[in-house]
Amino acid sequence: MSHTRLDPAAEPPPAGRPPETEEPTSPLSFWDGRGELVIGAILLVVATVLVTGNLGMNVIGDGGLLGPQGFGWFVAALATVVGVLLTVAALRRSPEQRRSMAARERTNWRAVGLVMLGIIAFSALIDIVGWLIMATVMFAAVATGLGNRNVVRNLAVGFVMAAVIQIVFSGMLDLNLPSGLLGGR
Fold first, then answer.
1. What whole-number distance in Å separates Cα of residue 173 and Cα of residue 47?
2. Containing domain of residue 158, as a range?
3. 183 and 112 in one domain?
4. In angstroms, rounded to a whole number, what is the distance separating the alpha carbons of residues 99 and 92?
5. For a 10 Å CB count at each end of the chain, is N or C smaller?
6. CA separation for the pair 91, 80 (Å, rounded)
7. pTM for this entry
8. CA atoms of 59 and 146, how far apart (whole Å)
9. 183 C-beta neighbours (distance < 10 Å), count
C-alpha cells in the first residue's frame, strides 16, 4: 500500500486556476437516502389492517391452518418482518451512505404514480367494473409504470392473464370473481 504525501510547496496550481478545494456538503434532510421508510411504513400499515381484519373475522369452526385467516396471517407476518427490516436498515445508515444514496438515486414519481393509480383504481372499482376489466387495466398501468412503453401489448398480456385467472377460479375452483359490467345484470 503506498501513501501519497501532500506537499503544498511541491506543485502550485496552474496559472488562472484556483487551488482545488473540497466542495462543501449540504446538510441532509431527514428523508435524504431514506426512501425505504415510506415503503416500510406502508407495509406496517398493511400488516396492521390485516391483523385487525383477521381478529374481527367470523369463522365457522376452527378454520384450520389454511382456512380463511391463514393467508391473511401469512401476509401480515411477512409485511411486518419486511417493514421492520426496511425501517431499521434506513435508520441505521450512516450520513456518508445516505449522502451517497441521495446523490445517485432519484425517485421516478411518474412510475410510482402510475403503479399506485393502477392499484387504487383496481381496489376501488373491481366490484363495479369487474375482475376481467380491472385486472387488465391494473396490469397495463403497473407494466407501463415500470417502464414498458407498449401499452397495447400491456393491455393484451393483462387481459390474457386476467382471463386465465378468471377461468381457473370460476371453472376449476368454483369461486366467482366479480363480473361487474360483463355480468349482464
1. 27
2. 108-185
3. yes
4. 13
5. N
6. 16
7. 0.57
8. 39
9. 9
